[in-house]
Design goal:
Elements: E1 9-13, E2 24-26, E3 32-35, E4 42-46, E5 54-58, E6 62-65, E7 71-73, E8 77-84, E9 98-100, H1 103-106, E10 117-120, E11 127-129, E12 135-138, E13 141-145
Parallel strand pairs: 2-9, 9-10
Antiparallel strand pairs: 1-4, 3-4, 5-8, 6-7, 10-13, 11-12
Length: about 150
């Protein structure tokens, strides 16, 4: 039995024409919901796998404290292609599924990864919020890593 994350894609719709959803494993800490129409009646949701992936970073340095006591640090320095919790390894025989991750994780996916990697587009043209401003989902995904599934090498 494999210890790889399991696909937990669900399609919810109030119309008769819901599309078949491609298999994408969601490695973010939240359910990822993509609305397929402007009236938000048709959506595809990808349940969180229970394990999220994080980009490893070097320690930040304290550089100052504001008059009100807030501490200010240098921005995080991320280590390229160094992900904590990434469930796949560089193995030519291993199947690499398509993934959904955060944008920062997507920018650090190893170049050898053979699956496509997507992140939710949370920009103002795509994000869907409720009346309190909480994010309900997005209208589209961004492709942040084009996989090499068809490569022979």
């Amino acid at each position: 039995m494999s210890n790889q994350p399991q696909d937990t894609t669900t399609t919810t719709t109030t119309t008769a024409s819901a599309p078949t959803s491609p298999s994408i494993l969601n490695l973010t800490p939240h359910t990822l919901t993509v609305f397929l129409d402007d009236d938000q009646q048709t959506k595809v949701s990808y349940a969180a796998q229970g394990k999220s992936v994080r980009v490893r970073s070097r320690p930040q340095k304290h550089i100052m404290t504001l008059d009100n006591g807030i501490k200010v640090y240098t921005p995080p320095a991320f280590e390229q292609e160094t992900l904590d919790g990434f469930p796949y390894h560089q193995d030519e025989e291993e199947y690499h599924p398509d993934l959904a991750v955060s944008m920062i994780v997507g920018e650090h996916v190893p170049s050898w990864y053979r699956g496509n990697v997507y992140c939710p587009d949370t920009g103002p043209q795509s994000v869907v919020r409720d009346s309190s401003g909480r994010i309900l989902g997005v209208k589209r995904l961004c492709l942040v890593h084009k996989g090499r599934k068809d490569d022979d090498a």
